[in-house]
Amino acid sequence: MPFAEGCELVCHASDAEEEDRLFLRWAIMYQASMGFEEFKAELLPEQGEHGDGDGRSAAEILEDVKGIIG
What we know:
- It is a single chain.
- This protein is mainly α.
- The chain has 3 helices and no strands.
- The longest helix has 27 residues, at 3-29.
- The model has no long low-confidence stretch (mean pLDDT 87).
């Protein structure tokens, strides 16, 4: 199998597993109070296909990490 197709297959499987875990979490705790799509929308930020990050530069992230580590 070509690398790109294998990578796409792994990404799809990972996304499906994440969806399954979210569904189980919703079904156990939140099913009576909200719909599944609403639950997902509250948990997952709107992003592109692979995420857009939080908009910080690498230097800003490193400064935060240095502050956490000490």
